[in-house]
Amino acid sequence: MATTAPSAALIAGAAATSLLLGVGLWFSFAEGDGLAACRDGGGVIGADIGGPFTLTDDTGARVTEEQVLDRLTLLYFGYTHCPDFCPTDAATMAAAADMLAERGVDVNTVFVTIDPARDTPEALAAFTDAMHPDMIGLTGSEEDIAAAARAWRVYYARAGDDPDYYLMDHSTFTYLAHPERGLLDFFRHGDAPEVLAERTACFADALR
């Protein structure tokens, strides 16, 4: 039986919704942590974002946030069937990580799926390996993903009823996290790899 791919209108609608939802999220800032100079606009993260999770990595092993966020880490929530935002943002993380490596800054890159029904460890491995050899993909049960998304204040929702061809609406922030300091900064869809690299390098220098 033939199946039909999502229409252009559905893709455009879901993409527009994701953008609006991403803009709708907000972060509060205040002075005082000594890292303000590294952020766009200064200040420190005031919102309570980030927290513990247990997920399944792209090798099938169960991992915690302590094992994954073990150093400066660029973290993104998306899905492998995403037609636009996710591959672009994952590629941006990968390019930034390579730029940082050239400067002697070791940064982890992590891609957490919000579509565990389709994103098995094998599917994630194929996606992350294509982006960067060191990128980690994380999946889990619906409950696992929901808990991680709540901790990081990530919005996501399925768009469409087709069991095979559907999109996911979701927020599109890339987070910069540190194992001891927690969330350091965030980046928006459309920020260039150079922006991620420069600001991340600033944090790396400041935290030495």
UniProtKB/TrEMBL annotation:
Residue numbers binding Cu cation: C82, C86, H170
Species name: Rubrimonas cliftonensis
Record-linked PANTHER family: ELECTRON TRANSPORT PROTIN SCO1/SENC FAMILY MEMBER (PTHR12151), LINALOOL DEHYDRATASE_ISOMERASE DOMAIN-CONTAINING PROTEIN (PTHR12151:SF25)
InterPro entries per the UniProt record, alphabetical: SCO1/SenC, Thioredoxin-like_sf
Protein's recorded name: Protein SCO1/2
Disulfide bridges in this chain: C82-C86
Keywords: Copper, Disulfide bond, Metal-binding
CDD domains: SCO
Similarity comment: Belongs to the SCO1/2 family.
Domain of life: Bacteria
